[in-house]
Task: inverse folding
């Protein structure tokens, strides 16, 4: 049997080209997400983190490369 999808819950944020969150969702394990057409970047975190951080639609996220 082959299982598709991740093996643990994730919070997923979809960002537009300005870094504005256009959609967030909590994905349970072993699920596959659908495309969000306005999004150009996807940020994933451990399930429950976005609620703890207060991240929601309309927030602006800056994504940087690690310089190390």
Result:
């Amino acid at each position: 049997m082959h299982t598709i999808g991740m093996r643990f819950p994730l919070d997923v944020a979809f960002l537009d080209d300005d870094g504005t969150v256009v959609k967030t969702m909590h994905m349970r394990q072993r699920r596959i997400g659908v495309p969000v057409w306005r999004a150009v970047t996807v940020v994933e975190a451990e399930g429950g983190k976005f609620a703890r951080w207060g991240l929601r639609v309309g927030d602006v996220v800056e994504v940087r490369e690690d310089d190390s």
